[in-house]
Design brief:
heterodimer; A: 111 residues; mainly beta; 6-stranded mixed β-sheet; 0% helix; globular; B: 116 residues; 7-stranded mixed β-sheet; 4-stranded antiparallel β-sheet
Chain lengths: 111, 116
């Protein structure tokens, strides 16, 4: 069954540094994969999604993710972190009609 | 995407009472879902809200505790019944839009519930 694993419940980066949030998936078929962001006291916002059209997916706020079948990974990156990127990030995979979420990674931005 | 609203945005309730949460969407949707996010946790699917029929519940969730209605394509309610402090969570509705974006779920802002 499809699932995702997020490595690291907390990640800290300095402002201006590279952001890398890791997500590995397990799926026997080509998956639909998503990254969502949850800012403090808010709901979830879709950052980007992979639906097999292109392996490098660009999302909002300068984020992108690369689908690597050989590594079963869908890591989220941003070249230069901004203080406003501090939030909880969830990787997710579609399983039938349902979206299955990872445990989340809280991103801290250090001044 | 779509504009999804939830009411109330937050509430503090007493043990043993019930709270009904509303979810309204401004577009035609194919599917609506209800999730729970316990403090510091990820999202767990409670049920799929089916229009005109009983909701489909996930393992560990039952209709008596979380009755759901979906009278039309753009509106659904979730009731948290006979609440206990363990029900303190964020409750979120999500939708899939009719049309080309059907594989994506969009989320409402959530309802923050504290049970005393």
């Amino acid at each position: 069954a499809q699932s995702v694993t997020q490595l690291g419940s907390h990640v800290s980066v300095s402002e201006g540094a590279l952001v890398l949030l890791r997500c590995n998936y397990s799926s026997s078929v080509p998956p639909y994969l998503f990254w969502y962001v949850q800012y403090p006291n808010q709901g979830l916002q879709l950052l980007l999604k992979y639906t097999s059209a292109a392996t490098l997916v660009k999302g909002i706020n300068g984020f992108e993710a690369e689908f690597k079948k050989s590594e079963t990974s869908f890591h989220l990156t941003k070249p230069s972190a901004h203080m406003s990127d501090a939030a909880e990030y969830f990787c997710a995979v579609r399983r039938g009609d349902k979206i299955i979420f990872g445990k989340g990674t809280r991103l801290h931005i250090l001044p | 995407s779509a504009v999804i609203s939830q009411k109330p945005s937050r509430d503090i309730c007493q043990r043993g009472t019930s709270l009904t949460i509303q979810c309204q969407v401004d577009s035609q949707v194919t599917m609506m879902f209800w999730y729970r996010q316990q403090p510091g946790q990820s999202l767990t699917l409670i049920a799929t809200a089916n229009q005109g029929s009983e909701a489909t519940y996930e393992s560990g969730f039952v209709i008596d505790k979380f009755p759901i209605s979906r009278p039309n394509l753009t509106f659904s309610t979730l009731t948290v019944s006979n609440m206990s402090p363990e029900d303190s969570s964020i409750y979120l509705c999500s939708v899939e839009l009719a049309g080309a974006l059907q594989e994506t779920q969009y989320f409402g802002p959530g309802t923050r519930l504290l049970v005393l």
